[in-house]
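Fill-in record for Immunoglobulin domain-containing protein.
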Amino acid sequence: SCITGGGSDASPVPLTAKEKYGNSQNSLRFHSHLHLSATSLPVSRSQDLRHSHTPAFLVFRVHASTSPISIKLIPELPVVGGQVVLTPSYNGSRYNVHWYRAEGQALHMQNSILAYNTEFNLTHFGNNFTGRETTYEDGSLKITNLTVGDAGSYTVEITTASDPVQATVQLTV
């Protein structure tokens, strides 16, 4: 059988056991930071091997990391019609910076404002992009012509060489 790690660039990864029967465990690490473990349990062999079954369990664990970053609002108290810059305080190397606007929801593509690829200086606009947002090389997000509707939770996810880091800030207009 095969397991895929998710995403458009994921390819099937064959899941094989060290032994045909008995205890064995394989762990696979995906770029999407999802860790999968497959464990097969020993089974009693029947006289007819065509009817023997090996129960298997998949364990899904999402690697959570503590956030070594925060987001600074400039100005701290933005007003309607003004602008605000949301600046992440991350100092390490970054590959992608992804901004989301979601009130109490998980990070999904439908909540995406924009994603910025630092290596190629490319920006991808998401469903929550209004045309009033821009990003800078340091990963900051600028929102102009603020409205009351811009208030809410903003989350930045920075992809690094190891694991992604996230921070969320509450914007009040």
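KEY FINDING: The longest strand covers residues 152-159.
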